[in-house]
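Worked problem 6 (solution included).
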Amino acid sequence: YRAGVEAAAKGDWGRSAYLLKKALQGNLTPKQQEIATITLANAYFNDKDFENAALNYEEFLQLYPASPKAREALFRLGVCYLNLTKGPQWDVTFAKKAYEIFKEYLKKYPNGPEVEKAKLYAKIAKKILAEHELYVGGTYDMLHKFTASIQRYSDAQKRFGSVEAPDRLFYLLGRAYYYTPIQSKEEIERL
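Solution. The predicted structure is:
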């Protein structure tokens, strides 16, 4: 346990993670378990292993929600999720989780030291979610499924109007409405 905490203090994240993982399988006092769990999560985080960091921050927050380190763990959990997001053209589950975590952080810790960063990261996560909706809408456009793209663009306008340029949304919506008769004609001809 001590060697793992000392390795973390020296910035040897890989060694720290290895030692703390082993220590957590042994008999530690409750305070040592708390310190080992957060230090392990931080070691993964600092080593940019965001998947393992997220798992350990989640565990820490479940086990120690009243800990003085819970604020930092919650913020870093959101950062992990944001870093696990590949982009708007991929699955955006992690972006959704990041957005929710940052909203929770801002609600629980309105005067926390990371408030400005949390607001910025929440906005970035929301922008990724908006871009995903537009990406799916664009895919429907390419497939000439304009009624489906209208639904996506309308949804993006309602949910993400604060982070997406209104001109772009209106343009995409207008274009989809313009081409809807083409979709209707193609559907009729196919029958």
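Discussion: The longest helix spans residues 115-142.
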